[in-house]
Every structure is written in C-alpha cells, then in structure tokens.
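Just curious. Protein, please.
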Amino acid sequence: MIFQLLLLVSLVVDDSLCTIRFTVKVPDYTPEDNLYIASNYNGWNPGDPGYRMNRTADGSYQISITVPKNFRLEYKFTRGSWITVEKGISGEEIPNRIIQVIKDTALEIEIGNWRDFVEKAVKSHTITGNVQVIEFESRFLKYYNPRRIWIYLPPDYSSSKKTYSVLYMQDGQNLFDEFESFAGEWNIDETLERMHSESGFSLIVVGIENAREHRIEEYSPYLNKQLEQGGQALDYINFIVRELKPYIDSTYRTKHNDTGILGSSLGGLVSIFAGYIYPQVFKKVGSMSGAFWFNPDIVSLVADSKATPEKIYIDYGLLEGDDPERYIKGNELICEAILKSGVRNSNLMVVKDPEGVHHESSWAKRFGTVVQFLFKN
C-alpha cells in the first residue's frame, strides 16, 4: 500500500513548468560582487534579490529558475544594476539572450565583459533649452513616490503671454537627458527647439519618470496571466488626470483642452489605454512601437468604445526586438480596432518604419512626425 502511494505521488508531476539551470562564467577581472539574472519574467529588475545567483568554488555562478512551459525567456546578467550589465567580448552592446523553454534545461554561459569596465566615456547632462525638474507626490502612485517630473517649456514661453498645448509622455528619464537615460535619450528638447526655430512650433512636454523595475505593473492595464504581472495602469492614469494635470494647468500657461499623451512600447500601450479611458482629457494620443501583444484585451476595449480621442498616431518598426511579428500583428489589430471605434481615417496616422528597431534612437527619429500630426494645425 505504501509503495503504491509513493508510486502515485511520483507520477503526479506538473508538466506545465520547466526548470532552467544556469551556470555562468565571468571575466577574470570581475569584482566579488553579487550576480543577478534580469529577465522579462521578473520585470527586468537588475538587482532582484529573488534572482541572485550563487557563487561556486570554481568562481562561476549558478541559479535555477522555474517558468511556464513554452515560455519565451529573454534575459541578461548584471552585477546589480544596468550600469553593471553584461557586454560582448569586444565591449559591444549585446541583444537580450533568449531561450524558448520547452523542457528542463541546463545552460552554460560565458560573459564577455561588464558595462562599467568597458565604457570609458562618462555620460554627461545633455538638456537643451528650458527643462525644469520637480518631484511630485501622489496618492495614486504605489512605487517611487514622490516621482520625478521633467517639464519642457518652449523657447518663447518667458517672452510671450501665449498658452500652449501639453503632451504627457512616459519614461521621462529617457526623453531629455543622456545622463539620466537607460539606453540613450529621445532628444525631445533638441527636436522641439529646432522645430520652433524653423516654423515657430511650440509645445509643453511633461515627462513622467517610470517606475523602474515596476514599469510593467504601472504601464499595463490588465494582468498578464502568463507572467503574473501588470494590471495597475488605471492608478497611474488617474495620477496624471486627477493630480499632475491640474498642477501643470494651474502652474503654467496651458491650453487646458488641448492635451495629448504619448509613449513607446508598454508606454504606447498605456497611452492608448489612457486615451480611451479619458478621451475627453487626452484628445491627442500617440503610440510608438506599442507592445499591444502584452495585453491583447486592449483591442476589444478600443473597438467597443463609444467615445474616442480626436487624433491618434500609431507607429511601429519592421525590425522590432527579437520577434518583430508580434509587434506588427499587435499594431495591425489595434489600428483595426481604432477605426472600428469610430475614428476617421483622416484622424489616424499609421507609420511603418522599414528600418525601425525597438530603441530610443528610432523613437527619437520619428518624434517630430508625431507632434506635427497631433498638434500642428
């Protein structure tokens, strides 16, 4: 009887999960730091204590991770921050490591270099024009509260009495300043300074710092059940609508009824969500390389909406990430839903960039096109 019970227990195996065992060899010069694995499974947290690796007697590091079967794991190794992320053998940037997990697997990996050892150039501040930085406390924000806010004011703001349209943007630390950016800045300030010089185009931009390792939670309207992440976007949007926008409108000379919202990747997803939850507030909406695949439910929300933003801009590159097709398909579906919701073709601009990649450099290149369509009369 006992034998039969043990046999039954041994046969009850959860075949919906797979375990990956990583053994990592590091460069000889590596300090005796902790080593971590950052991935799309832990929200790309570069110093997550739950994903700290164990150092072995021979100097290598090991960790075992259990993920759902058929999960596409994207990952990199760090020494606790993105400043200390791994680099290639010649010091070059490397793409995310990827494994499609279909069974228990053991991987042996050798790291070429560390970012902080091979990047000799020290990043400097690159803000151009009038950009103010404040800290803003919120009753809605769960993470990093108070939150840093960057406010770009047009060149003629101080010398005129004009009022200005306002564009709220996600990932504020990547918009204006190379020093603050994760992987390069968008050059928002340089682009708007040039546009003002050439044509007099003026716009206030409010950049909101992202929640770093909690970015996925805050920028996703719905829970991604596979990753068990996301679903807190409504609190984030309420922070903008009920707290930040009233402050901006009362502090600066704004056109209260000419407001837009824009972001990239998950920032694009949450911008479309905001535009359809609060169409009377965000009349101009933009998404660049939107990660709609992460929350497919956004498609039905948009398609079934009775009220819509006035203008919507959608773009995506044909070389997005390591799986461009999921970005292409997701953006095609959201465009169909936008038209179904009642937005006229003339008020929807769709840009497909044949050379577009999932990076700040591509979004910087297309930023001028976005704001001209959304705000230029």
Remarks:
- Residues 127 and 257 are 28 Å apart (CA to CA).
- The chain has two domains: 15-118, 130-375.
- The first strand starts at residue 17 and ends at 25.
